[in-house]
């Protein structure tokens, strides 16, 4: 078992002028960030957010005074605890911190960081594995989404079970191979926007300042997406992320469209929000179903988010959607939809209701994760000092 992680006292301590918070630094899918036992952080949301910003080093763009990775995909945090209801085993909150921003956004999902939640829970003793595979029901508090997650938990020679990170599963966007983590989402429609198709239509034509009329599919099957034909915005849809990030004029058109889409989806002013994710689509080029470039929302994803892939795959099976226009044919009640992205592809297996094939009842996919470092995250005690010193405890 992870001796380092297990042997540490799970409590916040003083360390000179700093407060030390037990923390595991983990990769979840194609994202990475610190994970905490949510019960150890301040109850007050304002103070908790100030602590999280200090941990990451935001709002500095380089996050130089913290452990954030200076990119949205490596500026993510997981806050995990045992479930507080009988239906689930664990619950967690995903927090997105933007390198240059002061917002701690807990309003949407992250299926990549989700992949590290069960390994974290086993590492910290929240979940005790009982067999070679351990399955848990995990509630994402951000949106109420529930997922069934399975990880490999073999036994060492002494019979102690541990999370195995070694294996042969490969996911595009992460070098090498690792143990597979199976994730099945049960009910993801309308995670943030309230319903699968928040405008009630599979396609809308929106008037965008400086761009003109643009056809979009506004959809949320776990992540709010605005799906648009890449060519309508003057792109091919096959650019590298660096090419998209360097194209200020294209990004300005995408952002103008995003603000209009956010309002149309009932999400209000999304200027500082990290959604809707803007998904530029084109016909597949590598034998998959659909080619995507996902802006999250201002920089281009190196691959695609998990629930963004689930949502894009869902759009492929909706007749009349912008994705359906350019996607390869998807057939059957359990289709495997291959979403192409800049570093490869992402396969999502959808379960469609035989009575209504537009209804997705389950989506399953594979991720990997790894514990990268175990220790304490340190923030200035002047910010948060929950541990009175011996002297402070004495009556005056
Ligand atoms: O859509 C990036 C990621 C994500 C989110 C983002 C994600 C998801 O790749 O479920 O995983 O969209 O900001 O980590």
Automatic annotation (TrEMBL):
Signal peptide: none annotated. Keywords: Isomerase. It is an enzyme of class 5 (isomerase). The keyword Isomerase applies. GO terms for molecular function: isomerase activity. It comes from the Bacteria. InterPro entries: OMA_tautomer-like, PrpF-like. Its EC number is 5.3.2.8. It holds the Pfam family PrpF. The keyword Isomerase applies. Belongs to the PrpF family. This is 4-oxalomesaconate tautomerase. It comes from Streptomyces halstedii. The lineage of its organism: Bacteria, Bacillati, Actinomycetota, Actinomycetes, Kitasatosporales.
């Amino acid at each position: 078992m992870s001796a380092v992680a297990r042997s540490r006292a799970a409590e916040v301590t003083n360390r000179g002028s700093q407060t030390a918070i037990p923390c595991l630094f983990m990769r979840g899918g194609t994202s990475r960030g610190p994970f905490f036992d949510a019960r150890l952080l301040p109850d007050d949301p304002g103070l908790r957010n100030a602590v999280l910003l200090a941990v990451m080093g935001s709002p500095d763009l380089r996050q130089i005074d913290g452990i954030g990775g200076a990119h949205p995909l490596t500026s993510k945090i997981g806050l995990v605890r045992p479930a507080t209801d009988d239906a689930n085993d664990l619950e967690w909150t995903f927090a997105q911190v933007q390198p240059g921003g002061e917002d701690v956004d807990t309003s949407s999902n992250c299926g990549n960081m989700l992949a590290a939640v069960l390994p974290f829970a086993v590492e910290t003793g929240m979940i005790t594995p009982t067999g070679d595979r351990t399955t848990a029901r995990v509630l994402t508090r951000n949106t109420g989404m529930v997922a069934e997650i399975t990880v490999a938990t073999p036994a060492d020679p002494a019979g102690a079970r541990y999370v195995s990170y070694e294996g042969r599963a490969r996911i595009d966007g992460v070098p090498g191979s690792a143990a597979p983590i199976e994730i099945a989402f049960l009910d993801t429609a309308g995670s943030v926007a309230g319903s699968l198709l928040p405008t009630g239509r599979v396609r809308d034509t929106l008037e965008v300042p400086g761009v003109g009329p643009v056809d979009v599919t506004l959809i949320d099957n776990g992540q709010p997406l605005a799906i648009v034909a890449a060519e309508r915005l003057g792109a091919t849809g096959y650019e590298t992320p660096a090419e998209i990030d360097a194209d200020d004029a294209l990004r300005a058109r995408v952002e103008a469209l995003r603000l209009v889409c956010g309002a149309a989806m009932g999400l209000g002013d999304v200027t500082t929000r990290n959604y809707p994710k803007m998904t530029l689509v084109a016909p597949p080029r590598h034998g998959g179903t659909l080619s995507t470039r996902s802006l999250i929302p201002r920089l281009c994803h190196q691959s695609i988010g998990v629930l963004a892939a689930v949502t894009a795959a869902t759009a492929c099976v909706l007749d009349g959607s912008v994705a359906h226009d350019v996607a390869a044919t998807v057939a059957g009640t359990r289709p495997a939809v291959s979403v192409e992205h800049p570093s490869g592809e992402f396969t999502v297996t959808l379960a469609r209701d035989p009575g209504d094939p537009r209804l997705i009842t389950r989506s399953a996919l594979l991720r990997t994760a790894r514990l990268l470092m175990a220790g304490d995250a340190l923030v200035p005690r002047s910010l948060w000092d929950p541990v009175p010193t011996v002297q402070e405890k004495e009556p005056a």
